Amino acid sequence: MKKCLEDNTVGNCGNDIVAIYDKINPFSLFQFYLSYNFFNFSHKFLNKMVDKNMANYGTSFVHSSSFCLFSFLYFVLENNDKYLFNTFWNFLKVYSSGYFIYDSLYIIKHQKMNLVNFVLLYHHASGINLLMDDEIKHYTFKMLLFAEISNLPSCFVYYLIKTKNKTFLLFMKKIQFVLYSFFRIPLIGYYMTSAFKKFPYNKNLYISLPIYFMGLVWTSKLYKGLSK
Predict the structure, then answer these.
(1) pLDDT tens column, 38-55
(2) Span 87-102, pLDDT tens digits
(3) Count of domains in the chain?
(4) Is 16 contained in some domain?
(5) Residue 156 lies in a domain
(6) What pTM was estimated for this model as a whole?
(7) Could you give the CA distance from residue 92 to residue 86 in angstroms, rounded to a whole number?
(8) Helix ranges, 111-136 (H)
């Protein structure tokens, strides 16, 4: 703020204040709360039919599949109505952030705090951080879309493991590996590289960079799992 006044960039100061207010105003926080509760309710509903871990995978599928469906509207509005597009992007930010908050709390409440879960918590916090940065929203959306597509088979793989259905398990593991490795490595890598080229000083990109390397490690693990 002081720097803005010294440089007489009052307009920029005003924009900064508005951006900060938008993130912390009660109505905005209430939207995140509603989104979190939607996924929390989804988990409770599914938990009536399956165990809590299976219900958590099901909730993940609800988020991934619905985000993929919403993406069609994103592409329709992207180059048309600017107001509707910005409104829809704000909805996507809140929607996915609500899921990340839900899953983070689920991990903290119901799972052991091992390395994998600490990595997942970092992944979710970094994802929310990226979603809040409108400067790179076009890149964030595409990276998130590809990430959610790559997540779709996970629910089915977990279900087949739990039900010990070996007939389709290897087939689904192969689909999971192909989708995950294709979308997470070359496609997300391309858009992340493009974002770095256009916004080389964007700190949020650097904060999210470890997520990409997490994808490389997980791809390797999925590949090894094909032989089991």
Answers:
(1) 999 999 999 999 999 999
(2) 899 999 999 999 999 9
(3) 1
(4) no
(5) yes
(6) 0.86
(7) 10
(8) 115-131
